[in-house]
Write a structure and sequence with these properties.
Elements: E1 4-20, E2 25-40, E3 43-47, E4 52-57, E5 63-64, H1 75-97, H2 104-118, H3 124-136, H4 141-148, H5 154-168, H6 176-189, H7 193-200
Antiparallel strand pairs: 1-2, 2-3, 2-4, 4-5
Helix pairs in contact: 1-2, 1-3, 1-4, 1-5, 2-5, 4-6, 5-6, 5-7, 6-7
Length: 205
C-alpha cells in the first residue's frame, strides 16, 4: 500500500441543460470542480494544483471546460436543434408503430430517451396520439429516413439509430424483423454498416 501519493477530490457544482459540441445537440450535463491533492495513506493533506472546473455530458460522457456553458446558439443552430429533436422523436415513434401496435414499455422508452436528449417531458397520451397521427398520415420509417439522410452528420445519424435501437429493445429484446428494419434504416440514412451493426447488436443502453 502506497503511503505517499496524490488523489483527486471532486466537488459537484451544478446540473442542467447545455449544448454539447460532440453530440451537436442540447443535452443534460454535470459540472464538477476537480482538484489534485498530496495524500498520506489516502488522506488529502495539501493541494498540488488549482481547482479545475469540468463539464460532463450525460449522453456522450464528453468533458469540457466550464465556459462551454456560456455558449449561445445562433438562430440557424437553434432551428437545427429544434428540427433534430423532432427527427429523433419521429424516428422513435415510427419504429414503435412499425409492428402495428404500441407497447407501454415502448412509450415509456420514448419518453425517457426524449427527456434525456432534450430535458423536456412528454405525456404518454401525447406520445400515443403523435404516433397514431403519423400512422394515419401514411408515413413509413424508411421514407422518413430518406428525408433525413442529407441533413444529419455522422454523429447525428448514430444518435437517431441509437434512439431507435433503445425503443426496439424496450421489451427486453430486438426481434429479427426489428433488426432487419434497423439495418435498412442505417443503410438509407447513410450510416456505415459497421457502425449500424455496433449499435444494433451492442448491449441495450
Amino acid at each position: 500500500m502506497a503511503i505517499l501519493g496524490s488523489m483527486d477530490r471532486i466537488k459537484p457544482l451544478s446540473e442542467g441543460q447545455f449544448f454539447c459540441p460532440r453530440c451537436n445537440d442540447h443535452t443534460t450535463y454535470r459540472a464538477s470542480e476537480v482538484r489534485r491533492w498530496f495524500s498520506l495513506l489516502r488522506m488529502p493533506l495539501m493541494p498540488l494544483a488549482p481547482a479545475e472546473g469540468v463539464v460532463e455530458c450525460s449522453l456522450c460522457n464528453g468533458t469540457y471546460e466550464l465556459n462551454v456553458l456560456d455558449a449561445e446558439l445562433n438562430a440557424d443552430e437553434q432551428a437545427f436543434l429544434e428540427n433534430f429533436e423532432v427527427a429523433i422523436l419521429n424516428a422513435m415513434l415510427l419504429l414503435m408503430m412499425s409492428d402495428g401496435h404500441v407497447d407501454d414499455s415502448e412509450v415509456q422508452t420514448v419518453i425517457a430517451v426524449h427527456q434525456k436528449l432534450t430535458g423536456k417531458t412528454l405525456e404518454p397520451s401525447g406520445v400515443v396520439a403523435h404516433a397514431e397521427h403519423a400512422s394515419r398520415a401514411g408515413h413509413t420509417l424508411t421514407d422518413y429516413m430518406e428525408s433525413l439522410a442529407d441533413h444529419l452528420n455522422g454523429d447525428g445519424k448514430r444518435l437517431v439509430v441509437r434512439s431507435m435501437a433503445m425503443v426496439a429493445n424496450a421489451d427486453g429484446r430486438m426481434d429479427d424483423a426489428e433488426r432487419r428494419l434497423m439495418l435498412e434504416c442505417g443503410r438509407i440514412i447513410g450510416l456505415p454498416k459497421t457502425a449500424t451493426l455496433e449499435i444494433v447488436d451492442g448491449p441495450p443502453e
